[in-house]
Amino acid sequence: GFGGLPGLVGGLVRGSQIDGKGLLPSGAAMSASLTATESAERVRRRLRVRGQVQGVGFRPAVYRWAHTIGVSGSVGNDQHGVVIEVEGDHASVERFVDTLPDHLPKLAKIEAFLQSEVETRLDPDEGFVVATSQGGTNCDAAITVDLATCPACLREMRDAGDRRANHPFINCTDCGPRFSIVRAVPYDRCNTSMRGFEMCPVCRGEYQDPGDRRFHAQPVCCRDCGPRLRWVGPSADGPPRTDEAVLREAVRQLMKGRVLALKGIGGFHLAARATDSDAVRRLRQRKHRDAKPFALMVPSVEAATELVVLSDSGREALASPAAPIVLAPRRTLSAVAAEVAPGTHRLGVMLAYTPVHHRLFDLEPGLGPLVMTSGNLSDEPLVIDDEDAATRLHGIADATLGHDRPIVRGVDDSILLDVAGGDPVPLRRSRGMAPGEFDLGVHGPSTDGLCVGGELKATVSVVRAGRAVVGQHLGDLKHPAAFENFQRSAEDLLELFEVEPRWIACDAHPGYLSHGYAKAFAARRGIPLVPVQHHHAHAASLLAEHERDEPILAFVGDGVGYGEDGGVWGGELLLASRRSYHRLGHLRPLRLPGGDAAARDTRRCALALLYQSYGEAGLRHPVVDRLQLEPDERHVLAGMIRRNVNCAESSALGRVFDGVAALLGLCETNRFEAEAPMVLEAAASEAEPIETTAPLYQLQDETPAQLDLSELTRRVVDGRMCGEPVAVLTAMFQRGVAVGIAGLIGHAVATTGLRVAGLTGGVFANEALTLSLTAQLEERGLTVFRHRRVPPNDGGLSLGQAAVAVAQQTEEVSPCV
């Protein structure tokens, strides 16, 4: 195998039998034992490479290095990845194999590299060629993610003397659309939505020239043979007839305060100037998005730093080829309209990542920042088709900038949370990050399956040959159109990766739409249904991400999850392996009036906290007067709690945050998921750092143990009644929760002897809570696992389901003990 390959690609190199021979020792090891005669002996070797190796310039890099070394042979794509055959004297072949890692494209990610000896050819001067791609069945080649426009293409686009000057679809092997345009593998032009655009002679010459940066760049095009922009809407000088005229008209409309529908790589955005309060308000009203923050697009990292405070890791992520939205603390003097992100101390900022975006900013330097939000009505799937945009975005956008390159599948923007002193945390994996592969460590056809996630922040994963492929963010499934899109996406991934599922995994909640889909799918196909408990899936996603098989103490905190006892869980300490889990502890359950209604009306959570903390007297506490409940409503809710009528017992930490936000007067209604915790965290960010907090909790040493935060609640209520600053109280509350969870985990360490903890679930999108709890656990000498590659929220559930299902289908992963 490659010497030093794991450091190069961040993966593992595994061997298996190929052509009757095993993985050969490294070239350095072999060369050391060769005699001069053996070194001159002519050999031919076949190398099979799997991973992210199609669509990243892998074949051109191999071709160029082979010619530099002077070996003959071929390189080509097949349904599994890349196949290289290299022939020459033994010393040259060994040099080629040993040094190839240093000459691969930076976007390549290798999961497996296997080599075998094959019979030499008769003609020693055959040369080295790029072979015709081979299709076939049992596809397991990786699909490359969509990539932001690279610096080299930007330089050409801005060079008036270049033939692609100002070209709005410029791309090369290092950038441009991939996952959003591919229909099948291997990744070749005929298998993409660029198939309908015949290359002009000049582009074809570049495509076929191994020395050119566009050698085998599948979306390659120019203004003579590529896609065209389309404009629908008002225009100052009549219908624009050229791409440049379309872009200039778009800039004019945006500068006038208009809302623009803009077609990108993976779907449409709705765009407006972020400094124009009226435009942002109109966009909110039309999109039916009352309060959820909008993302912003800027032309450069320098422009981003005028809006937000970025860590070094956040800056690096922002400028990466994935070009995600990065959530970072906003600067106080930012000119961004207050309506962009009300109630939060962060802004979500991304860089321009398509040539069209860059052209808009180039044409008018004073244009940005721009609101750039998903092109849809709230809760609906992303619009990806021009004709669909004409109907679904009618009345929202004042004009449409589209184009005629078809989008095969919708791919929304990815979101990362910038965390001080650490790697960013993914909150949504999509464009630039999906599809993503995770080796589950167990291989064989029995592992092939389908995992359909939860109901919020849904993703779908397929498992093939022991590797989970996690698809793009699909959103919340309760809207009929979103559920239809989810079903299409599941079928699309199965077809694209040619997976014939032996089983289907889903959330154990019987009321989830994804559960119903999985149940019907299993019956229709005659395969096993594998229900996975919600919080076990969260813990398993963390285990899979860190490639860990042994159990951990996983604290899982979120808003709701169906418990094995039929209750509402959400603040759980699990002794969890991939195969199974044991509930060691949880938050003391709240009695929530109206059940699911409390997830929206935070005042119900507040009343439940008061009842839990003060008993009957809590329902009459003076702080209730500040909850702005109508007298009749207050009476009814108090009666429901007192008599335990139409109430749900919930251990969800998310509901505790909701209730405290209401008690402090910060948020009475969650207009979108987790609004109250977000507002609470924003308030806490204004307080001075809290170094210590006295323990304000009790542990009820039962089986499982219960973490009672009643004392912390009473401290918050007393502080509010005494007029303490809300910022101080919120910071104290967050710190107090961390102290309580650390105490619960410490209790489990004492009883189990296990010293490895994991933090997962949507509450760990709270930076302050996460960092505080991590520090306390590390002070106790524990190893702490947190999410770096998949979201801690429900966006990671399908990967966790994959890890659990594969472990349960095999005997190779140790169960929890």
Structural account:
It is a single chain. This protein starts with a helix and ends in an 8-residue tail after the last helix. The protein is of the alpha/beta class and about 800 residues long. Strands 6-13-7-8-12-9-11-10-14-15 form a ten-stranded mixed β-sheet, with helices on both faces. α8 crosses α12, α21 packs antiparallel against α22 and α22 packs parallel to α23. The N terminus and C terminus are likely disordered. It is globular. About 30% of the residues lie in helices and about 20% in strands. It has 24 helices and 30 strands.
Helix content: 25-40%
Mean pLDDT: 90
* Largest sheet features: 10 strands, mixed
Report the count of strand segments. 30
Name a few traits of the molecule.
817 residues, alpha/beta, ten-stranded mixed β-sheet, seven-stranded mixed β-sheet, 19% strand, globular, disordered N terminus
Quick overview of this protein structure:
Strands 6-13-7-8-12-9-11-10-14-15 form a 10-stranded mixed sheet, with helices on both faces. Strands 27-28-24-23-22-29-30 form a 7-stranded mixed sheet, with helices on both faces. Strands 16-19-18-17-20-21 form a 6-stranded mixed sheet, with helices on both faces. Helix 20 packs across helix 22.
